[in-house]
Amino acid sequence: MTMPPFLRAAAGPLKLMLQDRLAVIGLCVLGVIIAMALLAPMIATHDPRQINEIEDGSVLVRGTDTWELSESLGPLALNDADHRGNEALIVGREGTVWERDGDDWRRVQVPVAADLHAVAFGPQAGALIVGDSSTVLAQVGEGWRVIDPPRPADLRGVAWIDPDSALIVGAGEEIWRLDVASGDITEIDSPVGRGFALASVARDTDGTLLAVGARGLAVRYDPATGAATLDRLGSSRDLNHIHIAPGGAALVVGERGTLLRRDGPEARWQTDTAPDTRALRAGWIDDGGRAVAVGRNGIAMEWDGDAWQLATTESERHLRALLIEGDRWLALGSDRFVTRLAPPSAEHWFGTDHLGRDLYSQNVHGSRIALLVGFLGATLVVLIGTNVGLIAGYYRGRTEAVLMRTVDVMYGIPFEPFALILVLLFQPSLLIVILAVSLLTWRTVARLIRSQVLSLRERPFVKAARVAGASDLRIMYLHIFPNVMPLVFLELAIIVGVSIIAEATLSFLGLGPPHSISWGGILHDARLSGAWRTAWWWNLPPGIFIMVTVLSVFFVSRSLEVVANPRLRARQ
C-alpha cells in the first residue's frame, strides 16, 4: 500500500524527532498534560470552585496564652459536656457519647443514633442525655435506658430539678418534667405557646429553672407550683446557652455576640459589650469572677473582671460546648467548618487554599487555560509573523521598510505595561490575554521568516515561476511558504512555551481572566492571601506544572530545530 505524500513528507522529520530522547520525553509529558486538560472534569476529585467543609469532634485546650488544638474525638461534631467529680461525659451527633477513662476518652455505645444535644449529671448519681427524635436517655449503672416520650420532639436542653426529677426543653417550645425513676413525662404549658425554640436550661439558686431560646425568650419554671412564667433578660436575639454557678452568678450567650451576665442571685441582668459579633454557642461563669464564651469560627472570649477580651485560638472550627474542671478548660465542637489551608491529605491531594477549595482540582482545570492560551496564542503569533515576514521579504523596498520599522517599534513596547493598558481599555478576559500575547510576540517570527524569504526569493524555482506568469500571491504561498514551513513549525513550538509563560505572568499579576482557573491565577491567589510563604503546597504544584509544560515544549522544539536547519541535520 502506497503511503500518501503528506505522510511520507512527515515521516522523515518525525523519525528525526524520535531519535532525540529529550524530544520523546517532551512529547510524552506534553501528551499527559493535554490528556489532563481534556479529561479535567473526570479526573478532578472536587469542584475547583467549591468551598470544602468537614465535620470533626474538635477539642481545644486552654493553654497559657492560647486555646490549643488537641486530638479530635472522632469525625462527628460534639454538642455538650458535663462533669461530676472525676466523671465526665461528652455528647454529639449521631449518638456520639464519650466517657472519660482516666486521662483519656472512651467511646460509649448508646441504643440510639439520633443527634444528642445536651447532657447533665444528677446531683447524686446517674446522668441524662437528650437529643433529636424525642431522644431521652437515663444512665442505669454502666448502661443507658431509653425513656419513651409523650410525642415527637427535638430536645435541646436538660437540667436536674432534684435527685429524682429533671426538666427538659425542646426546639418546639417543649417543657417536659421527667420523673427519672418511673420514666413518666409531664408536659408543662409554656407561657408563650407559639412554638419558639428553647435551647438551654439551668437550675437557679432558688430551686427554679431558667430556660432560654429564640428571640430572647426566657421561661422560668417553678417546681413548687408546677407553672412556667416569662422572665425578661433584656435581649431580643436568639439565646443559645445558659450557665448558672452554684453561688448565683449566671451567663447567657447567643447570636451576634450576645452576652448577658448576672453577678449574683439578686443582681440584675446586664448586657456586656462583646469584642466580636459572631454567634456564641456556649458560656461558663463561676462565682469568683471568671467567665468564658465560645462560638463560631473558633471564637473564644474571656472575662477579665472589667471587659470581655478576645482570646487567641489555634483553629477556626466552630465551638459548641465547654467542659471546665478547675484550671483545665476544654472547648468542644464542631459544626461543619471550612478546611482552610489544609496540607495535602488523602481527601485533598494538593491541600486546600485559604477559602477551602481543593488545589489538586484547581491545578487540573488550570491546565486548560494554559494550553488554550499556549496553542491558540502561538497559532496567532505564527500566523501574523509569517505573513508579515513573507510580504516584507518578498516585496522588499518601501513595503519591507514600513513593516520592519513596525517590528522595531513593537520591540520597544514592554509586554506587561502593554497588557495592563489592554486590560484598562477593555475588561480582563481570556481574549485580552491571547491578544496581549499575540500582538507583541509575532515580531521575532516576522524577522526570522523575512530573512529566510530574502534568500528563497532569488532561488531559480522562484524565478522560473515568475517567468511562467505566476502571481505574487501564488509564488509566496505555493512556492516560498512550503520551504519555510519547517521554520514556522519550529517557531510555533517555541512560541507555545512563551505563550504559556506569558499567560502565567499576566494571571499572576492579576491581569488574567477573572472567572477562569489557571496556574498563574492560583499563584496570584496565593500571593494575595498572604499565606504563600507558609502554604508550600499552594505554590509548588502550579510552579512545577508551568515548568514541566514549558520544558516539554522546548524539548520538542529542540528536535524541530534539526528538521528546520539542514546543517544540523547534515551533522547527524
Task: Describe the protein.
With 572 residues, the chain is of the alpha+beta class. The mean pLDDT is 89. Helices cover 38% and strands 25% of the residues. It folds into 2 domains: 39-50 and 351-540, MetI-like (MetI-like fold, Orthogonal Bundle), CATH 1.10.3720.10; 53-338, YVTN repeat-like/Quinoprotein amine dehydrogenase (Methylamine Dehydrogenase, Chain H), CATH 2.130.10.10. The relative contact order is 0.10. The radius of gyration is 37 Å and the shape is elongated. The protein is built from 12 helices and 30 strands.
Describe the SSE topology:
Blueprint: H1 5-18, H2 21-38, H3 40-43, E1 53-54, E2 59-62, E3 67-69, E4 78-84, E5 87-92, E6 97-101, E7 104-107, E8 116-121, E9 127-131, E10 135-140, E11 143-146, E12 155-162, E13 165-170, E14 175-179, E15 185-187, E16 198-203, E17 209-213, E18 218-222, E19 227-230, E20 239-244, E21 250-254, E22 258-262, E23 270-271, E24 280-285, E25 291-295, E26 300-303, E27 308-310, E28 319-325, E29 328-333, E30 337-338, H4 359-395, H5 397-411, H6 415-425, H7 430-456, H8 460-467, H9 472-508, H10 519-529, H11 536-564, H12 566-571
Helix pairs in contact: 1-11, 2-4, 2-11, 4-5, 4-7, 4-9, 4-10, 4-11, 5-7, 6-7, 7-9, 8-9, 9-10, 9-11, 10-11
End-to-end gap: 30 Å
CATH class of the largest domain: Mainly Beta
Instruction: Kindly report the average pLDDT value.
Output: 89
CATH architecture of the largest domain: 7 Propeller
Strand order of the largest sheet: 3-2-29-28
CATH homologous superfamily grouping of the largest domain: YVTN repeat-like/Quinoprotein amine dehydrogenase
Cα gyration radius (Å): 37 Å
